[in-house]
Amino acid sequence: MATQRILDFINTRRPNGPCMVLDLEVVRENFHNFEMALPDSKIFYAVKANPAPEILRLLASLGSNFDTASVAEVEMALDAGASADRISFGNTIKKERDIARAFELGIRLFAVDCVEEVEKVARAAPGARVFCRVLTDGAGAEWPLSRKFGCVPAMAVDVLRAAQKLGLESYGVSFHVGSQQTDLAAWDRALGDAKQVFDALAKEGITLKMVNMGGGFPTRYLKDVPTAQAYGQAIFQSLSKHFGNRLPETIIEPGRGMVGNAGVIKAEVVLVSKKADNDNVRWVYLDIGKFGGLAETMDEAIRYQITTPRDGDRSEPCVLAGPTCDSADVMYEKNPYPLPISLTIGDEVLIEGTGAYTTTYSAVAFNGFEPLRSYVI
Amino acid sequence: MATQRILDFINTRRPNGPCMVLDLEVVRENFHNFEMALPDSKIFYAVKANPAPEILRLLASLGSNFDTASVAEVEMALDAGASADRISFGNTIKKERDIARAFELGIRLFAVDCVEEVEKVARAAPGARVFCRVLTDGAGAEWPLSRKFGCVPAMAVDVLRAAQKLGLESYGVSFHVGSQQTDLAAWDRALGDAKQVFDALAKEGITLKMVNMGGGFPTRYLKDVPTAQAYGQAIFQSLSKHFGNRLPETIIEPGRGMVGNAGVIKAEVVLVSKKADNDNVRWVYLDIGKFGGLAETMDEAIRYQITTPRDGDRSEPCVLAGPTCDSADVMYEKNPYPLPISLTIGDEVLIEGTGAYTTTYSAVAFNGFEPLRSYVI
Hints:
Helix content of chain A is 30%, strand content 24%. Chain A is an alpha/beta fold.
């Protein structure tokens, strides 16, 4: 999946050490695909997926909005040229002083999932719009969501009622179907829940206007995934089914889907060895691992596609591990990874589809290794 | 466990945001305890546990040696005042150019666990000393080691024979019984394995001189752990049992045991909420989580002691989570953590025993949050 531009960059610049190289042209294409797939939805790019200034500037120039997780991300989006009305503070867990700072910077759209958070927003961002996140079950997602964010739909009604009473504008409902979600029906279930909240509040005279359908749009790792267009059609059908001809304003928050397939990590084979002379298990150690940017291999959740200079030679499964002195720094062991048996110390490999959730996850200095370098071209 | 100096620092300086505060006096005390417990062993501090320059300078001045995982850590130890002969390059996974760089800097002691690594050391660090790491089963450790490092004892014989043939000095054997190891018998089993390797090579005329007994010395989190003295006695008995009156030179590599209990993380309660009105599960969100330095809560492995201003009030278990928009950023959920029911948004809590494996694990910028700040006092 590495583009020719990325391959040329790596071959010409020969960067030393592991690095992530991301092709902005792929981001541009992804943005247009989302626009075409869901022409009536506003796109809020999830900055946390990759906050590289070049990406934010490109998306700001294309008209994207931005979903942010912290004041620092709000500032990055503003620096990239987005006006404050194009930025949402989408983290449901915020310090009151951070809400106040975002409000000062002009932000007027905040996520909440409980009355306690509504109270903070009402004090620190009077009159702002809030949307309440509802829980979804996350079935079908590769990186499941647990119950950390959101509340049950019945409680969302209470939360938004409280917001309205405290002088906020109860603006809508959000959900997230789980990252890397390949089950198109997941959106349908969540939209049905959202409609319930709309209806319950309408009976009390509170008119919600917006459904934030979150992210979850997958990037292609090893398996084929539905196209943005397939998502768009399925989502539009569900919206019509639940909301009829009174469609709400909708938002989507692609992160991985916007940048995941635009980036590639270049890594190096540091060691290939076995643990005993008569052992069948081959260990392959790279110069990047779980603490150098591949945090999403935790529990072997995300399985990246790896390209080697020896592809085509006979392959055998191996345990794939990182370079640190930490025994937890192993990417694939329970489900070993097939790689060419001819793979040799010093070989350069490409870990594909690593444009999202890599550079910022990287440990700041674990084992003395520097954070993952990033080149946006 | 926070010392009065740490409490005074936090109360006087009022640092904003989460931070780790570490008391050097505790490190000094730990160093002396290790010295007294194992007077015949050389102490090689595992720099990766916490490479703060103040810690390295103190330990260098006390006469400590240093176990390093990368060229950057070698340079930090040199900068702190350690001479090259007091530094070991203890990572078994090294790029050949990093071995060469360390050799240039004067390093003459390298870890290996396979012939492929021996070949690199022989080319890049001719004549250097090597020790071979053998696998242990890790039973009894809280942070188990998997099979990432080391080889079986029979293969260690082959590895060290190859080293000698390639002009290196086959110097000894190392093992690591697993971090936070509370089973004193674990050292005995590993020392028995080491002796086997000594004996097999002696028959071929190769005399090993050193046993590197690694780290694994625990710091106190919630459970009581044996004292350094208890470890010392048990280890000395095992050494005598296996090696008789021809005791080898020994090395220990404490990391967590040297700095873990010297540090405390100050954090803030950002939100306390439930997911449904009739829910019994309380969620407590802090301004630090798995990606902000508490990586070792992965799989709920390490359970830190948490002190709150409301201790003494009635407690109930809660799910404890971090501040990022990542659903995996949950510290304790399967095994919920008891905290006072009166705990309130804005409360400051202390996460005790966090001097090791926190600051450097911290993500460089995930969700826009800055890495964990560190104050060494």
